[in-house]
Amino acid sequence: MTKESKKRWMRNFGIGCVLLFAVCGIAFLYLREMRRDLIEECEQELLNGVQQSARDVSGEIKERFATLDTIQDLVSQSYEIGQEAADSLESARERYGMSCLGVVDKNYIYYDSSGESVTDTPHRQIDLALSGESSVAYVNDGYASAGVVFVMPYWRNGEIAGAICSQYPLNDISMEPESKRLEVAEMIVNSAGELLSASDKFEEYVGSELTWEAVSRDGEELAQKDWLETEISERQSAVTSAKNRFGKQIWFAVAQVPDYEDFYVIHFTNSKIMETKIENAMVWAYLLLALMAVCMLCLAFGAVIAYRKKQKEIYKAAYEDPLTKIPSKTKHKLDAQVLINRQDRKYAYVTFDINNFKYINEMFGYEYGNRLLIHIAEVIKEFVEEGELYAHISGDNFALLLKDEGSQEELSRRISKLFEAIIACKEPDGTLRLCTLKFSCGVYRIEGAMDINHVRANANMARTECKKQVFDEIVYYDEVLKTRRVEERELEYDAENALKNGEFLVYFQPKYDTVTEQIIGAEALIRWKHSSRGMLPPDAFIPLFEANGFIIELDMYVLEKVCELIATWAKEGIPLMCISVNLSRTHLYAKNLVEQLADVVKKYGIPPHYIEFELTESAFYEENGTLLQIMEAIKEQGFRLSMDDFGSGYSSLNLLRRLPVDVLKLDKEFFNDCDGEKDIDRGKQIVMHVISMAKDLEMSVLAEGVETKVQKEFLKEAECDMIQGYYYAKPMIVSEFEQLYRKQETS
Ligand code: C2E
Ligand code: MG
Ligand code: MG
Predict the structure, then answer these.
(1) DSSP line for 645-696
(2) How much distance in Å is there from the Cα of 486 to the middle of ligand 3?
(3) pTM given for the model
(4) Which of 56-65, 228-237, 673-682 is predicted most confidently?
(5) Residues less than 5 Å from ion ligand 2, measured at CB
């Protein structure tokens, strides 16, 4: 996983966590708010309940007075207080559930329904009644058990004759309070804190016996007058919660009984009941929150799994080559660096590829190429020992980190064995002609701990060098190679200025007619007269310029020089001949190539058929529609075309049929055998066959690199048209060539 994507993942994960916390935080705050609302709702319900009860109690009291009023009528109409009146009172007392009923005359003599009469002590309630006012009060004066006394005046002949008194037992005016959701216990007290009634379920709901302590508030008796006064003086009701002295959390609401200010109704519920109600309501909310948290967790879990999976995939993609299934370059570099850093043993870094793999691909197909690579990977797997590494770097390039504790020869033998093992394989499907495989292998024997990139660069340099060698299959990196590389870099650097300074010289090598042995043309060949290194052959710099593109400028430069020469000859009346110019493969795909070529010859006023462009055989390996089009365009301009170095590579005779070339230049390798003892006839046969076939295709044939008379004689016999080689002349400077040519023309 790259640093970037790891960073991105961490950031997303962080954002996810923050979001999760934020959502949970908001949900928590929301639930807290909701809980508060619910508490308020419950408190309100408690308050509403107590206010309703207070109104009901007020109604009850009024009803008692109404009852007393009826009894008063009874007393005032038929009354002469005696046994009869006492009986009536007694039956009324029983009917209305009073604990006492009686009348008091102005002299404070109290006539009880039981028929007894006592002289009562002056009393505030009786005084009020005698002055015409009804009242209700809690009494506990020892005459009867504690209770609530209702006193009102009774009238006779329009005058107050006394007071009628009824006493109800405690609890009598209590209503069982109704609440939709809460279980509520009720008590009624007066302002002195005296208890008038308490509901049966007090203990059940409040959680303790009915005692003043049970309903005290933070240790103080809540029924105390001052508390009642301060708490409800303004609102006539209040709701609160507190712990009582037994540690029980109690919620309670108080309301003053309307019209009877001395009485208060108090409703209680314990916190458990209240909490249960709240929790019941909140349970869904909690469930929802839990569900959300679970979902979030699942998402996070899913994300982690997806991340792991992705990481695995990325690991596989980065560390395993998809085709050969052996370690990739990335993995190899990491592992190799670890082993190198350890320095517990010596290693050699080996990198190799197949020569002309590209052409193998093109000739046998990519499927086949892939099978070949897989086959090599399998052989390598078998070949490496414990503690060694291998990888498929790219294309046809493989790398190995081998133990190197013996001599260079031993190492070379081991590597050669690997190549033999690759080749020795029985072809999987008969098409793989492994015996023809050639490898380019570069080896760097590592000294001490080094950066893997440096190690690879050295081994690759040796491999590149190996490609240039004809016979070596393994090249070791050494200081000479390194120096050469540096020199090459310098050459690339110097090229531009060298061209401006005229350091590049065009040499000419004459081409001879096989029969007349007269010069009939020439090939322009470049040389570099380097300011410090002296004369450099094309092989020393052309591959470099082909790689960096400078060859395009160089080829155009040669063409200009050639045109210049022909133009001079034309001016001087010297018979013109066709001169060939080498066109690099790189150049072929340059933009506007054909136009540029045409422009140059036009500039010098030269008929294009005096210019022949040599395309090296290897250019045709990649033969595709584009190359053919370019060639045809060149031909259309009137230029001549030749195929250079024919026979040096893989070109097939069949290919020739399709290409519009005028001249076939046979590579010197092609007919080398013609000069030797071995296979002389076979070699000759091939050359003769090629020549005759070229003729059938109406091509001229030129033999390059002819050095001996024997070769020349054979070529003449084989009806080869032209000869170019040291036998006649080496490439020479323009003045020499002119001299040679003039001499021929004048003789
Ligand atoms: P090439 O085009 O096949 O040129 C023929 C090469 O064979 C020349 O090498 C020439 O000197 C050499 N040669 C000629 N006769 C004999 C002989 O009898 N025996 C031997 N052993 N060699 C002989 P040179 O000049 O070193 O050029 C090498 C290659 O460099 C050329 O091969 C051509 O591919 C390339 N080259 C040269 N000049 C240019 C240029 O201006 N542009 C491009 N693109 N390539 C060039
Ligand atoms: Mg050539
Ligand atoms: Mg050639």
Answers:
(1) EETSSS--HHHHHHS--SEEEE-GGGGGGGGSSTTHHHHHHHHHHHHHHHHH
(2) 28
(3) 0.52
(4) 56-65
(5) 582, 614, 644
